[in-house]
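Worked example

This section walks through a single chain of length 192. The input is the sequence exactly as stored; nothing has been trimmed or padded.
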Amino acid sequence: MSKLEIVVASTRPGRVGPSVARWIESEAVKHGAFTDIEVVDLADVNLPFMNEPHHPRLGRYTHQHTRDWSAKVAEADAFVFVMPEYNYGYNAELKNAIDYLHSEWQYKPVGMVSYGGVSAGTRAAQMIKQVVTTLKMTPVFEAVSIPFVRQLLDDDKQLVPNDVMSSSATAMLDELVRFADALRPLRNSDRP
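Given that input, the structure is written out below as C-alpha cells.
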C-alpha cells in the first residue's frame, strides 16, 4: 500500500495552490498507482513558526501541532509539493513545515508541481531540492511547471490543464511510484 500526500504550500488569501492541488490529485487518481491519496493544505495545518525547543532530529516534540504534523508526514510514502515562487524562491510556510521534522521525511520521494508567472516556479523548485536532499528525501527529476497559472483557471477557479501539463504529471507520478518502491526497504529498516 502506497500513500501519496499532496502538500499545498501557499497559505495566502487569493492563492491558486488548492486549484492546482485538486488537479494533480485527479491526475494521481487517474494514474492509479497510489492506493491512498491525500491533499494536505498547510493553511489548514496552520503550524506556527518553529516553536519546538528541541532539534527535530531528536523527535522530542512538546506541542500537539508538531505531533500531529509528525504523524501526517510519517504516514506518507511519497509527496508532491504544490508550490508557488516568491521572489525567486519557495515560500516560508513550506520551509517552516519541512523544518519542524527530520526523520519523518527520510527515504521518501518528492515531486514538484510549481507555478507562477513566466518562470513557472522553476527557480523555487530548484532551490528546495538542496533542502529536501539534506533530509534524505529524493526529489524526482520529472516535474510539472505551470507558467501564467491564473490564465489556466476557469470561472470556477478550476485548473484547466494542457497536454504538456498532463503528460508531465504522468511522468512525475511514474517516477514517484518507482522511487517509493525502491526506497521502501530504507523506510522500513530499523535505523539508529
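What to look for: The CA atoms of residues 144 and 165 lie 6 Å apart.
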